[in-house]
Amino acid sequence: KQGSALRRTGLDPLDSSGQRRADGKTNDVLNNLVFFCPQIDDKEFDIPQVDTPPTLENLLNTDPVDSHSCETSSLASSDSGDPAHLKRKKTVEMNASVHGSVLRHSLLKGISAQIVSAAVSHARTHTVSGVIAVGTSHGLALVFDVNQALRLCLGTTATGAEFGAVSALSINHDCSRLLCGFAKGQITMWDLANGKLLRTITDAHPPGTAILHVKFTDDPTLAICNDSGGSVFELAFRRVMGMRSCDSRCLFSGSKGEVCCIEPLHTPPDLRDHPITPYSLLAMGSLTKILVIGLKPSLKVWMTFPYNKSDPSSVPQLAWQFVPAQKTYNPVLAFCRGDTVHFLLVKKEEAGSIHVVKQRQLHLNCDLISLSWISSRTLVLVNSQEQLQVVDRPSQEVLDQLDLEQVQLVYNSRHFKSLATGGNVSEALALVGEKACYESVCSYAGQILYLGTKSAHIMTLRNWRERVDFLLRQERFGEALALAWSFHEGTAKAVVGLYGDPGKRRGVVADKMVEILILFVERSLKRCPDQGKIQVLEQHFQEVVPVVVDYCLLLQRSDLLFEQLYSRLVENVVSRGMFLEALESYIISQRLAHLTTPIMKDLLAHYHGNGLMDRLERLIVHLDVTSLDMQQVVQMCWENHLYDAMIYVFNRGMNDYITPLEQLLYQYHHHYLIYYVLADKPKCVSSTDEQVVIGNKLLVYISCSLAGRAYPLGDIPEDLVPQVKNKVFDFLIRLHSETSEEEEVFPFIRTLLHFDTREFLNVLALTFEDFRNDKQALEYQQRIVDILLKVMVDNPDFTPSQVGGLFTFLARQMAKPDNTLFVNRKLFDQVLEFLCCPDDDSRHTERQQVLLELLHVGGVVQFDEGSLLALAEKAEFYQICEFLYEKQHLYEKIIDCYLRDNLRKVEVFSYIHNLLSMPGYSPAEKQNVWDKSLQHIQELVALDPSRSADLVTCHFSEHVQPILSQLEVRAPDGSLSLMTEQYGHSEATSYLLEKKGDAHGAFTVLLTVRPHPHHCGAKDGSVPLEGLESSLDDIIALCQRNSQNLNQQQREELTMKVLNAMSSFIPLPDIIQRILQDPVYGKGKLSEIQGLILGMLDTFNYEQTLLETTTSLLNHDLHWSLAHLRASVTRGLVPRQDTCNICLLQYRRRHDPPEEIVIFSCGHLYHCQCLQAKDCGSGSGSERPQQWSCFKCSSNQGGRGGAMADQRRARSTSLAQVGGDPLATLDPQQAQSWDHLRCLYHGPSRVGPTANPHR
């Protein structure tokens, strides 16, 4: 196993292109990165040959997966402990964003060769600086320079045998001193200038523990070490009178929780004056928490932070990094244990104290074993499966992933277990050590070095050009362009090598993207299949052409697109067509408005040749008209009926807004003549599809022109808007067209009205909204209205609906407060007579709807209401009548309108109910409607009996009897009885049955008492007292009215029914007593026995009261007895002492097998065997269980004989019997009570078990 260390000492940093800078300095700390790309000469090293180690060139030119691999097999570390913790699985997550290869993975061949050579045994820990130090298992420290040449070999094998393996290394910031920690606890300091041993420290920490970490601070005289006991010590180096010494101070004791890792804050050279530097901060990670302490000016704990719950085998990780924020740099501590990385921002307050701010966490789905900063925004993480992830901290996005299986990382398990000193560590620390690889991973100045069992590897961030070129070498042009565009826009992550202001950076990236685009086109043309199906060629160029067009337009390089690239793509017919069609989406989205003349010519020819005329039309209306060949485009539009494109070209190219109208109307008339005249179709037949298309375009075009908007998109220039409106109006009101004067007058308006009257009038209505203060426009408005009246009124070519639509339009315009239109009132009367003509039965519903709409928009002011109502009644326009009646508040007459209208008869019920229920109507109006409804009750019942019954129940409940009397004449067949019975009107049903002579049925109905509809009743549905009294009065009245018509048997049946009904709720003796006390029964035969019966009733009442009282007292006494009995037998017995009163041994400490313990109510305790030995039991045998008596109490009474002793023993044994029957000591009354109590509990007695002895 091996480790190494690296620190920069005067190395010249590399610029973005990989060349070394002349000045050897960086501008700031962010650009102070070293890309460690060694150029190794094998002849320089006298080392054995290795099996063809891979070169850097091979790594960069291989497949993206293999490029991160060094072609080595995965071998488990011999120090890794349990292999179960190190199972490696390949889990690669693909990111949506394109980042390319972010990390450059290089193999240090010189150091690797030394590691695998026979001269070097297993290597150990490493540190990183301008030199690389490697510790071996033999106690040697090998120091290499930047060219990987071996400079020093520190130590001897004898020292290694005494101190053990090198377990930790550290180099100070000026590379003058090297600290080596050993597995047996010693620490040595070496001078790197001459290889001299300066110090050997053996008493810095308790003996018997290995050194896990030793690290210099920014102060060269101060270092920190951490041992396998979990303790942390400060090492202060002194030199007095030429004598070197080291003072040790314990900073943290392992007895408070073992520390696994330490990390002092190292300030970059450019930030040596940072206000945090004097505090010399140190971060320590224990098994339970993170601590940040200050070593200077005095020892102080600034922050503690506990971990979240995690796997006990998870390894704590720490890493410091200075991060820019608000023009300042502050250190950020990243730490984790498990799958969550926490960030703490440390800054100094104005008061002088240090403030720690918790920042956003990073959650992962893996257990981390390594955490390193590679830049101020980028982290490099390694999980327990040895998968490396590059994560952007602000966005928490994974930028790159590598598999480190071929590295074969060295694990520090042997040192964490302190095997060299006997393994005297805690189990928790040993478990963490299974995954510990602290000394195998080291980062410095943008470089991370990983040490494996047979090789050393270094990771650095690629600059932006390398990341793009990496994708280009794999011919992933689309991803390379996407990555370059992210550099151009400043959205890329982990960017290295782009300097200067944003404009300069975009220019550099844009030049690179142009090179990629040209290379992409050339490569796609070279690799184009020579033979095959057309679909294969289309698929090939589909992956190229849209990408090229998109990035050219993003870069605003249309010259590159239309000149260099198109000249190459035009060589192939398929690529040429794909290119032209790819422009479509950009033209429609307004990203491309101007095309060169050759491109435009080829575009028209391609779309026309492939029959893509609809798509071509969409393209033309989005292009700049100056790029079009007017003659070619206009001719193509007319030939292929591209009306939108034709309108666009005439409007934008020639400022001609009338010619498109003339041509569209001509096309409409042309189709009209073909369809209706030549084909001899009736005019009532719907228009053809072509006519509908042309007509709709005409209406929309006219609407846009009059509203100042361009068709099909955009706006008319403001200086042309008045001129365009006037021209369009002049065109519409022309008396004749220029082609023929034999046609009817105003042909254009007439054509539009015939096509769609309502929509044309809507267009005019929208236009009239803008005619406020324009005098000329108001003249046009009046002129058009006059023409409309002249064309449509008294013209049989227009339907009533069309004529009504015209007058509805006029009524709306005239109802406006600023109306200036004048329309002769006689025209409205003429239209009214036309619509209300009673002799014309055609289109009755249509004419009524037209007139109703006219009235709703305010046309009623143009008519005399009286004549209008008369005409409406004559024409049977009941909706018109309803409108007028409602306006006059004659709501009762609306009922007649509903009943006469066959289409709306059933709506009369809803109308009556709503008017009588809703507020807003006066009592007189509701009364009129109520009276009118009563007059038409017979019609309502005939129309819908069910809804009529609902209406009567809700609003006419006080007049049920009169209504039924009125309806009985017309319904003698019993349908009314069925109706009232169905809806629960018991009084009405009883009345009808009595009228039919069925007194018995009427009596039965009334006997079933139901809540009255107008009584609120109880919430549970019960009948209130008022309802019961009312029902009872009705039953009595019924019996009195019909008693003369019933025979004796029928009267007895009714009487018995009443008595049976009463006996269900009232005791029978009370009924008999009430009957006998009535004066009516004081005469006749019943009077002779009246006194006897009343006396018997009094005696019965007295005896019943006496029986109830006696039963209550007996039950109370029985309950009291049983309660006391149950309390006594269930009371717990507490022994006075823990020893048996016979053998005097404690029953709890008796070592014999468990036996029964007997406790008496007196508090004495005995072993069962002791009582048997003293013969204190009785009744033993199979028939009766054993009964006991207290030995001590019996002895105090003078022995076990005597009646008194027997009584006392009986009382004692009643509470101390073992497994006995509790009923054996109860008297008969108590036994009976016991059975009764057991029945009440519905199960076996719960008193019996409690009566057994407590054991």
Automatic annotation (TrEMBL):
<dbReference type="InterPro" id="IPR001680">
    <property type="entry name" value="WD40_rpt"/>
</dbReference>
<dbReference type="InterPro" id="IPR056939">
    <property type="entry name" value="Znf_RING_Vps8"/>
</dbReference>
<dbReference type="GO" id="GO:0033263">
    <property type="term" value="C:CORVET complex"/>
</dbReference>
<dbReference type="InterPro" id="IPR045111">
    <property type="entry name" value="Vps41/Vps8"/>
</dbReference>
<feature type="region of interest" description="Disordered">
    <location>
        <begin position="1"/>
        <end position="23"/>
    </location>
</feature>
<dbReference type="GO" id="GO:0030897">
    <property type="term" value="C:HOPS complex"/>
</dbReference>
<feature type="domain" description="Vps8 RING finger">
    <location>
        <begin position="1140"/>
        <end position="1193"/>
    </location>
</feature>
<dbReference type="GO" id="GO:0005770">
    <property type="term" value="C:late endosome"/>
</dbReference>
<feature type="compositionally biased region" description="Polar residues">
    <location>
        <begin position="70"/>
        <end position="80"/>
    </location>
</feature>
<dbReference type="Pfam" id="PF23412">
    <property type="entry name" value="zf_RING_Vps8"/>
</dbReference>
<dbReference type="GO" id="GO:0005769">
    <property type="term" value="C:early endosome"/>
</dbReference>
<keyword id="KW-0853">WD repeat</keyword>
<dbReference type="InterPro" id="IPR036322">
    <property type="entry name" value="WD40_repeat_dom_sf"/>
</dbReference>
<feature type="domain" description="Vacuolar protein sorting-associated protein 8 central">
    <location>
        <begin position="578"/>
        <end position="768"/>
    </location>
</feature>
<dbReference type="Pfam" id="PF23410">
    <property type="entry name" value="Beta-prop_VPS8"/>
</dbReference>
<protein>
    <submittedName>
        <fullName>VPS8 subunit of CORVET complex</fullName>
    </submittedName>
</protein>
<feature type="region of interest" description="Disordered">
    <location>
        <begin position="64"/>
        <end position="85"/>
    </location>
</feature>
<dbReference type="GO" id="GO:0006623">
    <property type="term" value="P:protein targeting to vacuole"/>
</dbReference>
<comment type="similarity">
    <text>Belongs to the VPS8 family.</text>
</comment>
<feature type="repeat" description="WD">
    <location>
        <begin position="159"/>
        <end position="200"/>
    </location>
</feature>
<dbReference type="InterPro" id="IPR015943">
    <property type="entry name" value="WD40/YVTN_repeat-like_dom_sf"/>
</dbReference>
<dbReference type="InterPro" id="IPR025941">
    <property type="entry name" value="Vps8_central_dom"/>
</dbReference>
<feature type="region of interest" description="Disordered">
    <location>
        <begin position="1198"/>
        <end position="1223"/>
    </location>
</feature>
<dbReference type="GO" id="GO:0034058">
    <property type="term" value="P:endosomal vesicle fusion"/>
</dbReference>
<dbReference type="Pfam" id="PF12816">
    <property type="entry name" value="TPR_Vps8"/>
</dbReference>
